[in-house]
């Protein structure tokens, strides 16, 4: 399994990038958003990757963060969502937008992605809503693959690491702690994630205690 690739950008296509790794060129398929974040030809870069292996096909898919990669894996687990559809959703919403839309049950946002119909969007939300808390808790800036690549040792392919978040910023840490607190109070992961996502959207810099209070108000019978 190729879990991360680092090297020099040779060119960027409409849906992929060619990365030269010590003389070997790897075609990596990416979302529009990820492609836009990559540097131009000749510059060093790195991506977290997921390798699709089929009987007649090998394809690499690239992501700027482990959170984006995790959402790709989960989206691909939904019936009717292939790699192209997953990248369309991530390209339209971004990893954080996917987290928020699924946590809030906002299938209309998912439906905004090219090629995603209402039934598929509803299926995505229904099947993944309870998985949103774990992905959100990974942190909004789990160690990016593309930052601070040293050209002298950039051409490295590493085995897939276990998803692990770097020290999260205060806002992401507060959301993860609020999620944990609400689930400990007996709320389902889906309910907790939806309330925390909405509270965080209204007050992005809120501390843990403030997020919990706001989420509890939203979860109250008349909230």
Structure report:
The protein folds into three domains: 2-64 and 144-159, OB fold (Dihydrolipoamide Acetyltransferase, E2P), CATH 2.40.50; 66-136, 5' to 3' exonuclease, C-terminal subdomain (DNA polymerase, domain 1), CATH 1.10.150.20; 170-218, Helicase, Ruva Protein, domain 3. A hairpin with a 3-residue loop joins strand 1 (2-12) and strand 2. It has helices spanning 32-37, 66-76, 83-103, 107-111, 118-128, 132-136, 170-184, 189-202, 208-219; strands at residues 2-12, 16-21, 24-29, 44-54, 57-63, 156-159. The termini are far apart. The protein is α+β, with helices and mostly antiparallel strands. Residues 147-168 have low confidence and may be disordered. Residues 73-92, 108-127 form the Helix-hairpin-helix DNA-binding motif class domain. One of its GO terms (cellular component) is Holliday junction resolvase complex. One of its GO terms (molecular function) is four-way junction helicase activity. InterPro entries: DNA_helicase_Holl-junc_RuvA_I, Hlx-hairpin-Hlx_DNA-bd_motif, NA-bd_OB-fold, RuvA, RuvA_2-like, RuvA_C, RuvA_C_sf.
- Looking at the structure, the CATH topology of the largest domain is OB fold (Dihydrolipoamide Acetyltransferase, E2P)
Number of domains: 3
Cα Rg = 18 Å
CATH architecture of the largest domain: Beta Barrel
Shape: elongated
**CATH top level label of the largest domain:** Mainly Beta
Q: Which segments are poorly predicted (pLDDT under 50) over 5 or more consecutive residues?
A: 147-168
How are the strands of the biggest sheet laid out side by side? 1-2-3-5-4
What average pLDDT do the residues reach? 83
Strand content: 15-25%
The run of helices and strands is EEEHEEHHHHHEHHH
Total number of beta strands? 6
What does the largest sheet look like? 5 strands, mixed, barrel
CATH superfamily of the largest domain: Nucleic acid-binding proteins
SS element count, helices: 9
């Amino acid at each position: 399994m190729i879990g991360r690739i680092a090297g020099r950008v040779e060119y960027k296509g409409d849906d992929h990038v060619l990365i030269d790794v010590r003389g070997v060129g790897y075609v990596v398929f990416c979302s529009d958003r990820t492609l836009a974040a990559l540097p131009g030809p000749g510059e060093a870069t790195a991506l977290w990757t997921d390798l699709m292996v089929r009987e007649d096909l090998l394809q690499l898919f690239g992501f700027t963060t482990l959170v984006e990669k995790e959402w790709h894996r989960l989206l691909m687990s939904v019936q009717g969502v292939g790699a192209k559809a997953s990248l369309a959703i991530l390209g339209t919403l971004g990893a954080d937008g996917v987290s928020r839309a699924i946590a809030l049950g906002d299938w209309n946002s998912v439906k905004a992605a090219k090629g995603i119909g209402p039934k598929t969007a509803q299926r995505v939300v229904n099947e993944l809503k309870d998985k949103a808390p774990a992905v959100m808790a990974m942190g909004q800036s789990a160690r990016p693959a593309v930052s601070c690549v040293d050209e002298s040792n950039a051409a490295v392919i590493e085995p897939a690491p276990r998803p692990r978040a770097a020290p999260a910023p205060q806002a992401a840490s507060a959301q993860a702690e609020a999620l944990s607190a609400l689930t400990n109070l007996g709320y389902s992961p889906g309910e907790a994630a939806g309330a925390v996502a909405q509270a965080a959207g209204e007050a992005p810099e809120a501390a843990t205690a403030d997020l919990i209070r706001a989420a509890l108000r939203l979860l109250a019978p008349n909230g």
